[in-house]
Amino acid sequence: MADVSEAVQDERLKQEGFATKLMKRPELGALAGVVAVTIFFLFTASDTMFTLSGVMNFMTPAAQLGILAIGAAMLMIGGEFDLSIGSMVAFSGLIFGAFVVTFGMPLVIAIPATFAIAAALGALNGTIVLKTGLPSFIVTLAFLFILRGASLVGLKIATGGSTQLRGVRDAVENDFLTPVFSGDAFTGLFAWLAKQEMIDRFSSGMPKVPGIPVEILWFVAFALIATYVLLRTPQGNWIFASGGDENAASNSGVPVRRVKISLFVLTACCATLVAIITVIDAGSTDARRGFMKEFEAIIAAVIGGCLLTGGYGSAIGAFFGAIIFGMVTIGLTYTTIDQDWFQVFLGAMLLAAVLFNNFIRKRVTGER
Amino acid sequence: MAGDTTFHHGAPKTDAQPIVQMRDIEKHFGNIIALAGVSFDVLAGECHCLLGDNGAGKSTFIKTMSGVHKPTKGEIFLNGKPMDFSSPRDAMEAGIATVFQDLAMIPLMSVTRNFFMGREPTKGKWLFKRMDIDKANAATMEAMREMGIKLRSPDQAVGTLSGGERQTVAIARAVYFGAKVLILDEPTSALGVRQTSNVLATIDRVRKQGVGVVFITHNVRHAMAVGDRFTVLNRGKTLGTARRGDITGNELQDLMAGGQEMAALEGSLGGTV
């Protein structure tokens, strides 16, 4: 091949600096957001916010939202939406509550059974979207109402007229699986640390923070697994491809339908995990559980760098997005600022994130 | 880029057996006859141009060849054996790769991720089965270097590549995955002058690797630049296959347009079409 001229580096391409490279990571915006929010509260909030107990305080709601947000982010990368996540939390809570209280099932049966029902509903969502070709936005909006209504009706049937199902705590108290889904982990370690005076303790010698709430561990583990799947497995590549261009992906042999249905199942299962954790924690379930969570999860995913058009985003971004959420919700109570500013802040944050993401997308694709 | 080109043409071997041979292909859609008896073959290492104006049946023909459509009548032979493709996947497995105009590329994804989309190399077992990123990156860089394109990095998003480079990635991908026959659907139609010559150079490289190229175009100059043989399709019929040197660009142009009217038009436009 003597006539193959070596391709010359285009002289119009500028060398790319480290900062520009970093800019192209989808989670950068969310990370910057965490830093900005932390600095904001360092100046405005009382010092207790950033003590160990303060951190656990805002990480717990962040974790509950974050599990939903990571699922929502993966589905968004795959090019679809699920607006029924919040209602799914209520519905799974009802199913789970009914299984353990009304039917008296042990957790080892109740939990897989609840997940199976949720997965079937997720698959139904996905199948309708794919079969009809309708936007997932509208199909899952229908399920937002269907599941919310069904939870209300189901609760009344299960309790004989009440919209709250109590007695979950008594039913699961002695179950060997309960510690996996509720309470604190590493209590021994924290007690030891308190004894060594390495963390704050009460005068009785007990640590102020008894351990790490298990939902935080679920949240961190799920973020790591989701990131690994997205960036390091063929399935991750399929998710990006399905969201980027469905047609191109299926022409290249990506099983787009299977990928998307699996993602709908995943979001439904995320909702169920959150339902089980919060229901055991509260000891009861009610029809308002998970209210508005679908929007909060999508906002966290968008703050985390997901594009509404799909094909771009990250699980780690959604992780940081959920932390921002938790910090702002809880953080305002540590300040003298009126808490009702929360929603204003949220909307502004969402708008800023969307503008930023749009700018980044143009940089990545080289659009002008 | 007129008839005289810088590309080297391998002398077509007359006694070679065609990789794909299609005989008297007919395709009807309802009462519309899209193809009315088309014969076509591709030899290894040649570039066989399929010319035709819009609506001549080019798309239907390549879709038949790549397994999307089943012919209503006629036979397809692969290495001399009769073949019956029931899906594009069958054709792909038999080594017939098609690069359609949309290229099956995702702008937001990196070159590597696009290159191996749907066919990712893996390492590790069971739960630890993961994408072999290093291998994929190395293979992509190597394949692109062979095609004369130096990527800044394999992480570069396809969206940042030019149209010609994207076309080349798609071609390199097909060749990497073992294409014996490469069907290119109007690869130069949306490109500028320089990009076009890059793609034509890529076609030449691929041909030299022994791949049979089917180059679909309605641009006679582009066809004359790389083609070894030329088949013109007009209103669902072939008007014969000519070898390079036996036909001029003007004759091809006339065949494509169906003769007379074009001659009149060309007079008024001063031969610029």
UniProtKB/TrEMBL annotation, chain A:
GO terms for molecular function: transmembrane transporter activity. Pfam families: BPD_transp_2. GO terms for cellular component: plasma membrane. It is found in: Cell membrane. It is a multi-pass membrane protein. The chain crosses the membrane at residues 28-46, 58-78, 137-156, 176-194, 214-231, 261-283, 295-328, 340-360. Keywords: Cell inner membrane, Cell membrane, Membrane, Sugar transport, Transmembrane, Transmembrane helix, Transport. The keyword Magnesium does not apply. This is Xylose transport system permease protein XylH.
Automatic annotation (TrEMBL), chain B:
GO terms for molecular function: ATP binding; ATP hydrolysis activity. It comes from the Bacteria. SMART domains: AAA. Pfam families: ABC_tran. Keywords: ATP-binding, Nucleotide-binding. Transmembrane segments: none annotated. CDD domains: ABC_Carb_Monos_I. This is ATP-binding cassette domain-containing protein. Residues 20-260 form the ABC transporter domain.
